[in-house]
Batch of 4 targets.
Target 1
Amino acid sequence: MEILETLNEALLKKTSAKKSCRMDPEPYQHMAYSFSVAEHSVAVLSDMQLNRSYLFNSKTGTELGLEFGGNPAVIDSIWEEEILKKIHPDDKMRKYIHELKFFRLLETVKPEERSDFSVLSLIRMQDRNGNPRLVRHRMFYFYSTHNLKLRFALCLYNLVPDPPGNRMPVFSIINTVKGETVSEDTMIDNRILSKREIEVLKLIGDGCTSKEIAAVLCISINTVSRHRQNILEKLQVKNSVEAFQGMIRK
């Protein structure tokens, strides 16, 4: 997946031993554990320097059918596959795009102000019975005081009541100090792209060729080409890469 590779490269930038971060992960692990107890959150603390994650389960995790095999479970990756595979495919792509947008925003913010911001998203996930549920996802970044690079990311997942009208997913960057919405993802929705165009764009983001997209969607290659052209025209970009970059900057 093109967007995931870009995000992975941004988050896992290597540093020399002399410039490595010496922050103790234990206090951040305690923070994640506290959220899992106090809010029944599924909490994931990812260590960017070690490419490692600590997964804390809860009663919410039980409702979602998550089993980590430990509390915390420790995995050698910043990507918690057991959780990610539960997320609706469309929302997963948008989640990756929004996380890259968040990272790039914080890279432009003064180091002392980075902790003011967080991500708030509403995404669709499958529960233990295979039913779609609306989940509140929050994400916080913690930067190193030693080399000013991103060290930890804390993700929290909680079930929320389905609102009237079955509200679609929302992806927002919040200034939690000022109580302001800095950015909200409204670009990919039915007001701009059709449902089919969104499906095509998602498959483009997954790295599929036009032939592969045609096979997945059971349409002709000419129809795929027409959808791709419509996407470029609607988003006013030259190619699919710019389409994703446009979403990240919005």
Target 2
Amino acid sequence: MADIRTTPIEADCFYHIYNRGINGETIFRSERNYEFFLNKVSEFLIPVCDVYAYCLMSNHFHLLVKIKSDLELNSLVKVGNLGKATKTGLHSPQNVFSKQFSRIFNSYSQAFNKENKRHGALIESPFKRKLIASDEYLINRIIYIHQNPKNHSVIEFTKYNFSSYQSILSKSKTLLRRDEVIELFDDRENFVLSHQKVIDFDEF
């Protein structure tokens, strides 16, 4: 089994991306922290992947993404200075995505450290990732990500503000692939019903 920190990132594939603070340290201390991190996800990840689900907890986070196709990556006007995506090497999907993720971590960590008068690394590196190889696994991962607040005894997950559960059910503007997520569950009603079953992957 491939190491969860070295699993290759390939174009047109789904991944569960997750990580936590160094030694389980708190990485989100205020509503502003959560919002800043999500803004960085929009800024740096949306150009290279589609986001299907997310959940930010006080000391860790989960993202479910689909890497854009080779054609989409190749047609991008430069993502920073990354240039044209290629199959291997510096501009492969693996490195393009990892570079963008590093930008999120670096930008967020610098702001967090400045705000909290701390120094040094904040988030573990490299980030953990798992390839999603089937629709059933994809559906269960989405449910698991949304259930995180309940699994960690924080709050009933349907009421949690820093996951994609409420956004997927709402009609407000979103960068999430809302329609595609609902389609996976057939409809909104089954999306809600499916989230009543318990999913436990015990990542941490």
Target 3
Amino acid sequence: MPARAPSPARRMPVLRIAGRIVLGVLAAALALQLFFLLRIALMAVVDPQSTTFQRSEFVRLARAEGEFGWSQRWLDYDALSDNLKRAVVASEDDGFFEHNGVEWDAIERAWERNQQAEQRALERHSGRPPRIVGGSTITQQLAKNLLLSGERTLARKGQELVLTFMLEKLLDKRRILEIYLNNVEWGAGVFGAEAAAQHYYRKSASQLTAYEAARLAVMLPNPKRFEKLPNSRYVAGRAQTIAGRMRAVTLP
């Protein structure tokens, strides 16, 4: 005999359960966004004590090395060297003071470069994954490091964009740059501009010269690598380029 289809009465409990699950997931997602929104709103007046990235690095270093150095000290926006602000903007995001947090053209160009790199890797049959080139603005980098994990998924990238727009709406550019410069990594266990200036130059981040600031800006894409090669020819040449671009950066 052919199997009998479940009656409408039997299907109703299943639909109710599925509906409750969907509503629960949506409520949890909404609660998470509200949590992020309140955290960012609080940052308008309260300096963040640590970031998600810093906490993950703390755990990683503790497991790998046991005892390790950790350096970070907050400096207010006006105490940070204008040379460093200009150098980081010139190097990392020269449209920072004009865009709304996302540079769509830069993301598109980065996607195209990644596709080309992947194709070249396939043609060489190297088996090595291509180096991923990003198109992130300073605000996007801050959103990622402040509140998100380091995994690379479409869902995490989408959340990064939501947080980026929250940061841009709730904080002004000065505050975004201030939080970024005080928390960004400049080496293993070296976080923020003041720690970096003391680590590499034995001086405060308020006293950095244009060239010193440019050299620090060069390190940001890969600080752990350049920490081991601070006097490399690449760092020196790239710093000269950034020092030249700094003159075009107007601070608010």
Target 4
Amino acid sequence: MRRLFPVSDQTAARPPGEAARADGGGREWTLAELADAYAYPEQPPGELRPWLRANMVSTLDGAAQHDGRSQPISNATDMRVFGTLRALADVVIVGAETVRQEGYRPARARAEFAARREAAGQAPAPAVAVVTASLDLDFSLPLFTSSLVPTLVVTGAAASPERRAAAEKAGAQVLVAGDGAGVDPVRAVAALAGRGYFRLLTEGGPRLLGQLVASGVLDELCLTISPMLTAGGAQRIAGGPSVTVPHRFALMSLLEEDGFLFSRYRRS
């Protein structure tokens, strides 16, 4: 792994080979180094506000999936970044369709991040929040019955009372964040913050990310660009209706390994 941006004045002044070595080129970064590189912005204790970041992967031709899953366009380093971002978050937000397609399981506690999470006042593992209007989920899955931290189900006020009862019986906590059948992203973020979750991470899928973008609640995008071409009709990382005016984000960092680019953008 090597850092391409930002480049310090000292690194830029070195010969190319030395610059790469000085910035981590040619070796695998430790999990602590990755955690430092992706740390959430520091906020004064009395002025906490939710910070929502997304983590997605895309091929060179814009596909977010291959055969309905993201794993075929990922690699081992991308999965290390994926795990690190999870380990830094209070809660992982995911759409119901992604839960069904990707076979989501509960987030696990990792010894490598235990001290960091304890120092930040976090639970041993992040909670998972599933966004679903229909509550059409299999509540017998380990995601709901065997999670270290209770899984959250975020839905609208018009959701089926029977399905809500089934979710709660399985051990999930139901949050209502919408007056009708759908979920209001602004209210969903506020509801999670009301539970003490301020470091938010969404892993999509594309439909959910599109809703978050359109509502203006996304603060940061961590995008892995995979050096692959897939063609076909796969979705982009964000779908749904377009925004009236494109949202401008600023590049914060860019890492590279084995042709994969790991970018981090923050809302301008």
